[in-house]
Write a structure and sequence with these properties.
about 110 residues; single chain; Ribosomal Protein S5, domain 2; about 35% helix
C-alpha cells in the first residue's frame, strides 16, 4: 500500500485545525481521520531547521521510516512537522520517534 501526499495548503490547514496533535523531541504530528481508503501524508520542515541539505536529509529519513511501516498505517491524513533536534538524529532515532508517536495516536499497532 502506497501512501498519497498532501500537496495543497488547504489540505494541511484542515489537518492542523481539525486533527489531533502528538509531539516529542524530534517531531510533531497532526492526525485527522479520513473516510477514504488512502493514507495521506504531508511533511513540513521550516527553514529555521537548517540548510536545504539538512532539511532534505530529514525528509528522506522520514519517508524511509514511513515506507517500512506503510503496511500497518490506518486511513488517516497525517502531517509531520520536524523540530530542531531532528537535524542531528540518525535513522534509528527517526524511526523510533515516529513509531512511538504513531502508536500514541492509535494509527499503528506494533
Amino acid at each position: 500500500m502506497k501512501y498519497e501526499t498532501l500537496r495543497k495548503s488547504w489540505q494541511f490547514d484542515r489537518v492542523y485545525k481539525e486533527g489531533y496533535k502528538y509531539y516529542d523531541d524530534l517531531f510533531v504530528i497532526y492526525v485527522l481521520q479520513n473516510n477514504s481508503n488512502d493514507v495521506k501524508i504531508g511533511i513540513t520542515i521550516t527553514k529555521k531547521i537548517g540548510i536545504s541539505v539538512q532539511r532534505n536529509r530529514i525528509k528522506r529519513l522520514i519517508r524511509e521510516a514511513l515506507r517500512l511501516s506503510n503496511d500497518i498505517l490506518k486511513n488517516n491524513d497525517i502531517v509531520i512537522v520536524a523540530r530542531k533536534p531532528a537535524v542531528n538524529a540518525n535513522y534509528t532515532d527517526v524511526k523510533n520517534s515516529l513509531n512511538n508517536l504513531l502508536r500514541r495516536a492509535n494509527i499503528i499497532e506494533i
